[in-house]
Amino acid sequence: MSDPESERNRVLVLLAGAVAHKLKQPLAVAWGYMELLLEEPRPDLDPTTLRYLREIDMSLRTMDEVVNKLQRATVAQTRTYAGSFEILDLDDPAAA
Length: 96
Fold this sequence. Notes:
Layout: H1 4-39, H2 47-72, E1 78-81, E2 85-88
Antiparallel strand pairs: 1-2
Helix pairs in contact: 1-2
C-alpha cells in the first residue's frame, strides 16, 4: 500500500494530465481561428484590432506552453502562491 503522500502525488499528476487533455481541444480551435485571422488580415483592419489579435495569439501560445507542462508533469511539486496558497509548480524541472 502506498503512503498518503505518494497517493496525493499520483492523483495530482493524473489530474494535471486530464486537465491538459481537456484544454488542448478548445485551445487548438482558438489557435486555428487566430491563425486564419492573422494569416491574411483584411486591408481595412484597424491597426489596433490587429495588435489585439497578435496579443491574443501570444496569450494562446503561453496557454499552450502551460498545457504542455501539465501533460509532461510526472511529479507533483508544489510551491506557495500569493502568500498562503499551495499550487502545483509547473516550472520545477522535477515536475516535467
